[in-house]
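Raw record, unedited: S-adenosyl-L-methionine-dependent methyltransferase
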Amino acid sequence: MNPQPLLDGIPRRQSALTMALARAVHQLLDEPTLLHDRHAFDILGSNLARQTLVDPYVHNAPMLRTMRAAVVARTRLVEDRVVRAIGTGVRQVVILGAGLDTLFLRIPDNVRCVELDQAQTQQWKLDRLKESGISVPSNVVFLAADLAEAPLMELLGNHGIDPKLPTIFSCLGVLPYLETSVVSAIIRQVSLYSSQSEIVFDARISREFLSPVEQWMEEMAARSFAAAGEPWLSAFDPAQLMEMLLCNGFCDVECLDAEAINARYFMRRRDGLQAVDGGLRLFTATVG
Protein backbone atom coordinates (compact mmCIF):
# COMPACT_ATOMS: atom_id res chain seq x y z
CA MET A 1 0.00 0.00 0.00
CA ASN A 2 1.47 3.31 -1.08
CA PRO A 3 0.38 6.71 0.24
CA GLN A 4 -2.01 8.39 -2.19
CA PRO A 5 -0.76 10.65 -5.03
CA LEU A 6 -0.23 14.09 -3.51
CA LEU A 7 0.21 17.65 -4.71
CA ASP A 8 2.82 20.34 -4.23
CA GLY A 9 2.50 22.19 -0.94
CA ILE A 10 1.14 19.17 0.92
CA PRO A 11 1.04 19.16 4.71
CA ARG A 12 4.03 17.63 6.46
CA ARG A 13 1.84 14.74 7.63
CA GLN A 14 1.10 13.07 4.31
CA SER A 15 -0.90 10.49 6.27
CA ALA A 16 -3.39 13.25 7.11
CA LEU A 17 -4.13 13.74 3.40
CA THR A 18 -4.27 9.99 2.81
CA MET A 19 -6.95 9.68 5.51
CA ALA A 20 -8.85 12.69 4.16
CA LEU A 21 -8.86 11.10 0.69
CA ALA A 22 -10.28 7.90 2.17
CA ARG A 23 -13.13 9.83 3.79
CA ALA A 24 -13.82 11.72 0.56
CA VAL A 25 -13.77 8.64 -1.69
CA HIS A 26 -16.19 6.95 0.72
CA GLN A 27 -18.78 9.59 -0.22
CA LEU A 28 -18.52 8.51 -3.87
CA LEU A 29 -17.92 4.76 -4.00
CA ASP A 30 -19.46 3.14 -0.94
CA GLU A 31 -23.15 2.38 -0.49
CA PRO A 32 -24.65 2.82 2.03
CA THR A 33 -22.52 5.69 3.34
CA LEU A 34 -21.37 5.14 6.90
CA LEU A 35 -19.93 8.62 7.37
CA HIS A 36 -21.71 11.63 5.92
CA ASP A 37 -19.19 14.45 5.46
CA ARG A 38 -20.30 17.27 3.19
CA HIS A 39 -16.95 19.01 3.64
CA ALA A 40 -14.83 15.96 2.72
CA PHE A 41 -13.81 17.50 -0.62
CA ASP A 42 -13.44 21.07 0.62
CA ILE A 43 -10.59 19.99 2.90
CA LEU A 44 -8.64 18.45 -0.01
CA GLY A 45 -8.16 21.68 -1.90
CA SER A 46 -9.73 22.39 -5.28
CA ASN A 47 -7.19 20.60 -7.50
CA LEU A 48 -7.12 17.31 -5.61
CA ALA A 49 -10.89 17.43 -5.02
CA ARG A 50 -11.43 17.83 -8.77
CA GLN A 51 -9.08 14.94 -9.60
CA THR A 52 -10.81 12.70 -7.07
CA LEU A 53 -14.30 13.55 -8.34
CA VAL A 54 -13.25 12.83 -11.93
CA ASP A 55 -11.75 9.42 -11.11
CA PRO A 56 -12.19 8.12 -7.55
CA TYR A 57 -11.41 4.56 -8.69
CA VAL A 58 -7.66 5.15 -8.56
CA HIS A 59 -8.16 5.00 -4.77
CA ASN A 60 -10.12 1.74 -4.85
CA ALA A 61 -7.47 -1.00 -4.94
CA PRO A 62 -8.28 -3.85 -2.50
CA MET A 63 -5.89 -2.71 0.25
CA LEU A 64 -7.08 0.88 -0.12
CA ARG A 65 -10.69 -0.30 0.25
CA THR A 66 -9.96 -2.10 3.50
CA MET A 67 -7.98 0.90 4.76
CA ARG A 68 -10.91 3.15 3.82
CA ALA A 69 -13.28 0.95 5.80
CA ALA A 70 -11.06 1.25 8.88
CA VAL A 71 -10.75 5.04 8.46
CA VAL A 72 -14.46 5.72 8.10
CA ALA A 73 -15.32 3.28 10.91
CA ARG A 74 -12.97 4.91 13.41
CA THR A 75 -14.23 8.37 12.40
CA ARG A 76 -17.84 7.22 12.78
CA LEU A 77 -17.02 5.74 16.19
CA VAL A 78 -15.71 9.11 17.40
CA GLU A 79 -18.73 10.93 15.99
CA ASP A 80 -21.10 8.48 17.66
CA ARG A 81 -19.34 8.98 21.00
CA VAL A 82 -19.32 12.77 20.60
CA VAL A 83 -23.03 12.87 19.78
CA ARG A 84 -23.82 10.65 22.76
CA ALA A 85 -21.60 12.70 25.09
CA ILE A 86 -23.15 15.99 23.99
CA GLY A 87 -26.56 14.45 24.54
CA THR A 88 -25.64 13.83 28.16
CA GLY A 89 -24.45 17.40 28.66
CA VAL A 90 -20.74 17.29 27.72
CA ARG A 91 -19.68 20.65 26.31
CA GLN A 92 -15.95 20.12 25.62
CA VAL A 93 -14.39 18.26 22.69
CA VAL A 94 -10.63 17.96 22.08
CA ILE A 95 -9.22 16.58 18.82
CA LEU A 96 -5.57 15.57 19.24
CA GLY A 97 -3.57 15.28 16.04
CA ALA A 98 -6.61 16.52 14.12
CA GLY A 99 -5.04 16.29 10.67
CA LEU A 100 -7.64 17.14 8.02
CA ASP A 101 -10.61 15.85 10.00
CA THR A 102 -13.79 17.95 9.60
CA LEU A 103 -15.55 16.93 12.81
CA PHE A 104 -15.18 20.49 14.13
CA LEU A 105 -17.70 21.63 11.49
CA ARG A 106 -20.33 19.29 12.94
CA ILE A 107 -19.91 20.33 16.58
CA PRO A 108 -22.86 22.39 17.96
CA ASP A 109 -21.98 26.01 18.61
CA ASN A 110 -22.63 25.63 22.35
CA VAL A 111 -19.79 23.09 22.62
CA ARG A 112 -16.16 24.19 22.99
CA CYS A 113 -13.93 22.39 20.47
CA VAL A 114 -10.14 22.59 20.44
CA GLU A 115 -8.08 21.02 17.64
CA LEU A 116 -4.38 20.39 18.15
CA ASP A 117 -1.80 19.45 15.55
CA GLN A 118 1.58 20.48 14.19
CA ALA A 119 1.79 24.05 12.89
CA GLN A 120 2.29 23.18 9.22
CA THR A 121 -0.66 20.80 9.13
CA GLN A 122 -2.90 23.32 10.88
CA GLN A 123 -1.91 26.10 8.48
CA TRP A 124 -2.41 23.88 5.44
CA LYS A 125 -5.87 23.00 6.72
CA LEU A 126 -6.76 26.64 7.39
CA ASP A 127 -5.62 27.55 3.88
CA ARG A 128 -7.86 24.87 2.35
CA LEU A 129 -10.81 26.09 4.42
CA LYS A 130 -10.23 29.66 3.26
CA GLU A 131 -9.93 28.47 -0.33
CA SER A 132 -13.33 26.77 0.04
CA GLY A 133 -14.93 29.80 1.68
CA ILE A 134 -15.41 28.05 5.03
CA SER A 135 -15.00 30.05 8.24
CA VAL A 136 -13.82 28.42 11.45
CA PRO A 137 -16.80 28.54 13.86
CA SER A 138 -16.41 30.83 16.88
CA ASN A 139 -16.61 27.87 19.29
CA VAL A 140 -13.59 26.17 17.64
CA VAL A 141 -9.90 26.84 18.30
CA PHE A 142 -7.01 25.56 16.17
CA LEU A 143 -3.83 25.10 18.20
CA ALA A 144 -0.38 24.46 16.75
CA ALA A 145 1.61 22.18 19.07
CA ASP A 146 3.67 19.01 19.11
CA LEU A 147 1.94 16.25 21.09
CA ALA A 148 5.33 14.85 22.06
CA GLU A 149 6.07 18.04 23.98
CA ALA A 150 2.74 19.73 24.77
CA PRO A 151 1.61 20.01 28.42
CA LEU A 152 -1.99 19.20 27.51
CA MET A 153 -3.85 20.40 30.58
CA GLU A 154 -2.10 23.77 30.65
CA LEU A 155 -2.32 24.29 26.89
CA LEU A 156 -5.98 23.34 26.64
CA GLY A 157 -6.83 25.26 29.79
CA ASN A 158 -5.45 28.40 28.21
CA HIS A 159 -7.97 27.95 25.40
CA GLY A 160 -11.14 27.30 27.32
CA ILE A 161 -11.04 23.58 28.17
CA ASP A 162 -11.77 23.18 31.89
CA PRO A 163 -10.28 19.94 33.31
CA LYS A 164 -12.99 19.92 35.98
CA LEU A 165 -15.67 19.40 33.31
CA PRO A 166 -16.26 16.20 31.31
CA THR A 167 -14.38 16.27 28.02
CA ILE A 168 -14.28 13.90 25.08
CA PHE A 169 -10.89 13.37 23.41
CA SER A 170 -10.37 12.06 19.89
CA CYS A 171 -6.87 10.84 19.00
CA LEU A 172 -7.04 9.02 15.67
CA GLY A 173 -4.09 8.16 13.45
CA VAL A 174 -1.66 9.74 15.91
CA LEU A 175 -0.30 7.38 18.56
CA PRO A 176 1.51 5.01 16.16
CA TYR A 177 3.79 7.94 15.22
CA LEU A 178 4.70 8.69 18.86
CA GLU A 179 7.17 6.98 21.18
CA THR A 180 5.71 4.63 23.78
CA SER A 181 6.63 6.99 26.61
CA VAL A 182 4.73 9.83 24.91
CA VAL A 183 1.66 7.62 24.42
CA SER A 184 1.75 6.75 28.14
CA ALA A 185 2.07 10.44 29.04
CA ILE A 186 -0.96 11.38 26.93
CA ILE A 187 -3.05 8.67 28.59
CA ARG A 188 -1.98 9.89 32.04
CA GLN A 189 -2.81 13.50 31.17
CA VAL A 190 -6.27 12.63 29.86
CA SER A 191 -6.92 10.54 32.99
CA LEU A 192 -6.64 13.74 35.08
CA TYR A 193 -9.77 15.20 33.52
CA SER A 194 -13.19 15.08 35.15
CA SER A 195 -15.04 11.84 35.71
CA GLN A 196 -17.02 10.81 32.61
CA SER A 197 -14.40 12.25 30.27
CA GLU A 198 -13.71 9.90 27.37
CA ILE A 199 -10.94 9.11 24.91
CA VAL A 200 -11.11 7.30 21.58
CA PHE A 201 -7.82 6.35 19.94
CA ASP A 202 -6.16 3.79 17.72
CA ALA A 203 -2.86 2.09 18.48
CA ARG A 204 -0.55 -0.39 16.81
CA ILE A 205 -0.34 -3.91 18.13
CA SER A 206 3.05 -5.58 18.54
CA ARG A 207 3.87 -7.99 15.72
CA GLU A 208 4.00 -11.07 17.93
CA PHE A 209 0.26 -10.69 18.54
CA LEU A 210 -0.60 -10.55 14.83
CA SER A 211 -1.45 -13.33 12.42
CA PRO A 212 0.91 -13.93 9.46
CA VAL A 213 -1.46 -12.04 7.13
CA GLU A 214 -1.65 -9.12 9.57
CA GLN A 215 2.14 -9.10 9.89
CA TRP A 216 2.47 -8.83 6.11
CA MET A 217 -0.09 -6.00 5.91
CA GLU A 218 1.52 -4.19 8.82
CA GLU A 219 4.96 -4.44 7.24
CA MET A 220 3.71 -3.09 3.89
CA ALA A 221 1.95 -0.14 5.54
CA ALA A 222 4.90 0.59 7.83
CA ARG A 223 7.30 0.73 4.86
CA SER A 224 4.98 3.06 2.94
CA PHE A 225 4.60 5.57 5.73
CA ALA A 226 8.27 5.39 6.70
CA ALA A 227 9.20 6.15 3.09
CA ALA A 228 6.91 9.19 3.30
CA GLY A 229 8.82 10.40 6.36
CA GLU A 230 6.33 9.20 8.99
CA PRO A 231 7.77 6.08 10.64
CA TRP A 232 5.69 4.22 13.20
CA LEU A 233 7.32 4.45 16.64
CA SER A 234 5.12 2.55 19.09
CA ALA A 235 3.33 -0.78 19.37
CA PHE A 236 1.60 -2.52 22.27
CA ASP A 237 0.40 -5.76 23.73
CA PRO A 238 -3.36 -4.99 23.66
CA ALA A 239 -3.93 -6.58 27.07
CA GLN A 240 -1.14 -4.48 28.61
CA LEU A 241 -2.50 -1.32 26.99
CA MET A 242 -5.93 -2.02 28.43
CA GLU A 243 -4.30 -2.63 31.82
CA MET A 244 -2.47 0.70 31.52
CA LEU A 245 -5.80 2.45 30.96
CA LEU A 246 -7.39 0.72 33.95
CA CYS A 247 -4.41 1.50 36.19
CA ASN A 248 -4.73 5.19 35.24
CA GLY A 249 -8.32 5.33 36.44
CA PHE A 250 -10.21 4.61 33.24
CA CYS A 251 -13.22 2.32 33.16
CA ASP A 252 -15.45 0.87 30.44
CA VAL A 253 -12.32 0.14 28.40
CA GLU A 254 -13.03 -1.41 25.00
CA CYS A 255 -10.69 -2.74 22.32
CA LEU A 256 -12.13 -3.22 18.84
CA ASP A 257 -10.47 -5.41 16.21
CA ALA A 258 -11.63 -5.73 12.60
CA GLU A 259 -14.16 -8.43 13.45
CA ALA A 260 -15.80 -6.18 16.05
CA ILE A 261 -15.68 -3.16 13.72
CA ASN A 262 -17.29 -5.13 10.89
CA ALA A 263 -19.99 -6.47 13.20
CA ARG A 264 -20.81 -2.93 14.33
CA TYR A 265 -20.57 -1.01 11.06
CA PHE A 266 -20.32 -3.24 7.98
CA MET A 267 -22.81 -6.08 8.35
CA ARG A 268 -24.88 -7.11 5.31
CA ARG A 269 -23.58 -4.37 3.03
CA ARG A 270 -24.39 -4.75 -0.63
CA ASP A 271 -20.94 -3.36 -1.59
CA GLY A 272 -19.09 -5.80 0.68
CA LEU A 273 -16.99 -3.08 2.32
CA GLN A 274 -15.07 -4.59 5.25
CA ALA A 275 -12.19 -3.67 7.53
CA VAL A 276 -9.28 -6.11 7.77
CA ASP A 277 -6.96 -6.41 10.74
CA GLY A 278 -3.67 -4.83 9.76
CA GLY A 279 -1.98 -4.31 13.09
CA LEU A 280 -4.19 -1.52 14.45
CA ARG A 281 -6.89 -1.65 17.13
CA LEU A 282 -9.46 0.94 18.22
CA PHE A 283 -9.78 1.74 21.92
CA THR A 284 -12.38 3.63 23.91
CA ALA A 285 -12.14 4.42 27.61
CA THR A 286 -13.97 6.57 30.17
CA VAL A 287 -12.44 8.34 33.17
CA GLY A 288 -13.93 6.70 36.26
